[in-house]
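Researcher: Here's a chain I'd like modeled. Treat it as a single chain, no partners, no ligands.
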Amino acid sequence: MQVTTRRMTVNGIGLNVVIAGQGPPVMLVHGFPDCHDVWRHQISALVAAGHQVIAPDTRGCGDSDAPSGSRNYRIDLLVGDLLAILDQLGIARVRLAGHDWGAAIAWRLCAHHPERVDRYMALSVGHPAAYVSASLEQKLKGWYVIFIQLRGIAEWVARLGNWRPFRAFVAFDDEAPRCIERLSRPGRLTAGFNYYRANVGLFFNRDWPPVRVPVMGVYGSHDRFLAESQMVESRRYVEAAWRYERVEGANHWLQLTAPERVNALMLEYMR
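Model: Modeled as a single isolated chain. Structure tokens:
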């Protein structure tokens, strides 16, 4: 499999973008605390199936630039980065998949630029309006959003005792060392937290437009950060074909803990 790592300058910053394969383009957008590597099982499967894969490290993550200041992580800027990547690659319309913050960014992209998206596969995170309207279970699972607003304190707590609180929070021993290695670089933990700080209003704003592109929502049954209802109820905000799939036994990182099932769903949906 031929994989190219390309440095692209978009919106005044440098982004690391993995490009692999040939064929109909699929863009994969990761979340926190990940980089493009979270899609490692899906990239190879998509390329083998005849797709071109575009998997960026979003700003502040992986090997992309991490501008200082939370204002540089507003969701419209993050959407603009994805559009600029597609423009530079000459891609008018893309098949799209997003996970965690990548899913939230992709929902925004679908809502405001439907002409650029052929179809969208949302992993873990449902439509933002469904998230805001979700049950008390979701409010309790999302406690960390408020804690992260404590600038400096949140960073200090996360690193205590060789990142013990962070490890306990993630509760994913196989992946935590990769995350900690990335977040230990200067400014990277704060950059990740800035996604929550710059966009805290999204967690309370119900005024989101509907999505007019086909969507498949995929949820892991053991997700400790998100309630299933916020994904299931996303159907109310999709004015196109909607499909829901529950992956039994998968945690929040379902593309890593249930790669065969996620790959099968993705290859079928992106075909």
